[in-house]
Write a structure and sequence with these properties.
Strand content: over 45%
Helix content: under 10%
Low-confidence stretches: none
Distance between the termini: 21 Å
Strand order of the largest sheet: 1-2-9-6-5
Shape: globular
């Protein structure tokens, strides 16, 4: 497992990835060519992955994100040390917090 700030990245065995996810198109990259895992609402800084691969988001506000890195990659952020990731599939989990009557993703 890997953690950078409020983002947790968990390795997933390739055979455990549902077929509809494995075959889904990946998300577009930002203007800097990164796959953004989480964007800071206040600072504009991003937890992002560089390198070849794709990021697939399931529908819904808490839908999981699955990251495929066929050659490995790096998680980068302006205020954290970069984290190298080996090739493979990963589930990306955003930290959540409970507020009376609601659950929300932690704002950066």
């Amino acid at each position: 497992m890997y953690r950078q700030g409020d983002v947790l990245i968990v390795p997933v065995a390739g055979e455990a990835v549902p077929a509809h996810v494995a075959e889904a198109p990946g998300e577009a990259r930002d203007a800097r060519g990164r796959m953004v895992l989480a964007l800071g609402e206040v600072t504009g800084h991003a937890h992002a992955v560089t390198g070849p691969g794709r990021l697939v988001r399931e529908p819904g506000p808490f839908g999981p994100m699955l990251l495929h890195l066929p050659e490995g990659g790096r998680v980068v952020h302006e205020e954290h040390a970069a984290i190298p990731l080996p090739k493979g599939w990963y589930r990306v989990v955003r930290q959540r917090e409970y507020l009376p009557g609601a659950v929300r993703i932690v704002a950066d």
